[in-house]
TrEMBL record:
Domain FHA per the UniProt entry, residue ranges: 146-195
Stored PANTHER family: NUCLEAR INHIBITOR OF PROTEIN PHOSPHATASE-1 (PTHR23308)
Species annotation: Microbacterium betulae
Alphabetically ordered keywords of this record: Phosphoprotein
Pfam families: FHA, FhaA_N
Gene3D superfamilies: 2.60.200.20, FhaA, phosphopeptide-binding domain (DUF3662) (3.30.2320.60)
Name of this chain's protein: DUF3662 and FHA domain-containing protein
Xref: SUPFAM superfamilies: SMAD/FHA domain
Domain of life the protein comes from: Bacteria
Length: 244
C-alpha cells in the first residue's frame, strides 16, 4: 500500500462521513499530501554521504473556497499530513533539522483547484531521550550503562526464566547507543539475528529469552527557529491539468 493510499484510508477514519460530499469535486486532501511529498523530494539536499537534509516547515496556500472546505476537517487533516511527511521522509532516508510543522493559509492569489507550498528549513534545539519498551512499558535510560536481566540486581528486571540474571547491557552516551551481551546462557538477538554486541538504531528490537526489548529515541524539541524569508522555497501545484 502506497503512502497516499494510507493517507486516504487514515483520512476516512479521521473525519465524519458528513464530509464526504465536500470532497466530491475541487481540490482533494490527497493532492495536498502529494504536493508535500513532492516538495520533500525536490528540496532534499545531500549534506554528507549519510545525511540528506529536507525542509521541515511547510505553509500550504489555498484559494479561499478550497481553504474553507479543508477547514471543515480541522486538526484531522493536518495530523494526517504530518504523518505523510514523516513517513515519506523515513522511507527516503531524509533528515529534519528540527520539528515538522505544517500550516494551511488562505491566499487570494491562488486559483481554485490549485495550491502553493512554501517550505523552509527551520532549526530546532532537539534533545533525545533514550528509552527501552518492554511489554508496552517504557523505561528511560537515565545512565550510561543499563543492565537488563532477571536478577534483582539488574537495572531493569524482567520475569523471564529464559534470561540470565545479567543478560545484556545497553550503553547510551546521549548521542549513540550500543547493546552488548553479558555472556548470557542463551545469547541475545538484534532484529532476529544473534549478536554479541552492536550499535543500536531507533526502533531496533533486542530479544533475550522470550522477551522483546524495543530501543527508541524520543525527541524533546524546543520551538523551531525559521530561516530568513530569502532562504524560503516556494512551489506552485496545479492539479486541474495534472501538472505544475
Amino acid at each position: 500500500m502506497g503512502l497516499l493510499d494510507s493517507f486516504e484510508k487514515g483520512l476516512e477514519r479521521a473525519v465524519n462521513s458528513a464530509f464526504a460530499k465536500t470532497f466530491r469535486s475541487g481540490l482533494q486532501p490527497v493532492e495536498i499530501a502529494s504536493a508535500l511529498r513532492s516538495e520533500l523530494d525536490k528540496k532534499a539536499a545531500i549534506v554528507t554521504r549519510d545525511r540528506v537534509l529536507a525542509p521541515n516547515s511547510f505553509t500550504v496556500r489555498l484559494n479561499p473556497a478550497d481553504a474553507e472546505r479543508m477547514s471543515a476537517l480541522g486538526s484531522a487533516l493536518t495530523n494526517e499530513l504530518d504523518e505523510v511527511v514523516r513517513a515519506h521522509a523515513a522511507k527516503q532516508g531524509y533528515s529534519f533539522p528540527g520539528p515538522v510543522s505544517i500550516s494551511l493559509r488562505t491566499d487570494d492569489q491562488v486559483a481554485a483547484g490549485t495550491l502553493g507550498v512554501d517550505s523552509v528549513t527551520a532549526e530546532g534545539r532537539v534533545e533525545w531521550r533514550a528509552v527501552v519498551e518492554i511489554s508496552g512499558r517504557r523505561h528511560p535510560l537515565a545512565q550510561a550503562r543499563t543492565v537488563i536481566g532477571r536478577g534483582s540486581d539488574a537495572d531493569i528486571t524482567i520475569p523471564d526464566p529464559g534470561t540470565s540474571r545479567k543478560h545484556v547491557e545497553v550503553l547510551w552516551d546521549g548521542r549513540s547507543a550500543m547493546v552488548r551481551d553479558l555472556g548470557s546462557t542463551n545469547g541475545s538477538k538484534l532484529d532476529g539475528r544473534q549478536v554479541a554486541q552492536s550499535a543500536l538504531a531507533n526502533g531496533q528490537v533486542i530479544t533475550i529469552g522470550r522477551t522483546d526489548i524495543v530501543f527508541r529515541l524520543v525527541p524533546l524539541a524546543a520551538p523551531a527557529q525559521r530561516v530568513p524569508r530569502d532562504d524560503a522555497a516556494t512551489e506552485l501545484y496545479d492539479f486541474r491539468g495534472g501538472g505544475r
